[in-house]
Amino acid sequence: METTRQNKIARLLQKDLGEIFQAMGRDTFPGNMITVTKVHISPDLFLAKVYVSLFGKTEKQELLAHIKDHRKEIRLKLGNRIHNQVRSIPELDFFIDDSLDYIENIDNLLKKS
């Protein structure tokens, strides 16, 4: 169960990472849209699991690998934004959020019935 502090930090990270991806998208990830759907942060606030929804012309796994390659740059930009609110900037671990695909699959199965 997440504490109030974890929830506040997770919301802060989600908002700021979304803005970072929006700004970086034009140059670093052209032709793709990256949306941060949720963030889970560890109790010690040192690790953040970031779930992203990926849309665009690049294959999802390839785009996720590209995001992971730019992890240090993203963390630096995040640190510049939130360094006054947290003691240390958490390490970022990115995952694909496939909940939209799952919902679409369920929807298609229900339509067939």
What does this structure look like?
By secondary structure, this protein is α+β, with helices and mostly antiparallel strands. It has helices at 4-25, 60-69, 71-82, 99-112, and strands at residues 32-41, 47-56, 91-96. It has one domain (4-112): K homology (KH) domain (GMP Synthetase, Chain A, domain 3, 2-Layer Sandwich). It is 51% helix and 23% strand. Strands 1-2-3 form a 3-stranded mixed sheet. Strand 1 and strand 2 form a beta hairpin. Helix 1 (4-25) crosses helix 3.
List descriptors.
alpha+beta, 113 residues, three-stranded mixed beta sheet, GMP Synthetase, Chain A, domain 3
Which architecture does the CATH hierarchy give at level 2?
2-Layer Sandwich
Number of domains: 1
* Sheet having the most strands: 3 strands, mixed
How big a fraction of the residues is strand?
15-25%
β-strand number = 3
Give the low-confidence spans: none
SSE string:
HEEHHEH
Strands in their spatial order, largest beta sheet: 1-2-3
In CATH terms, what is the fold-level topology?
A: GMP Synthetase, Chain A, domain 3
Gross morphology is: globular
Radius of gyration equals 15 Å
Spatial separation of the terminal alpha carbons: 37 Å
Oligomeric form:
single chain
Number of continuous helical runs? 4
Mean pLDDT: 89
- Spell out the CATH superfamily: K homology (KH) domain
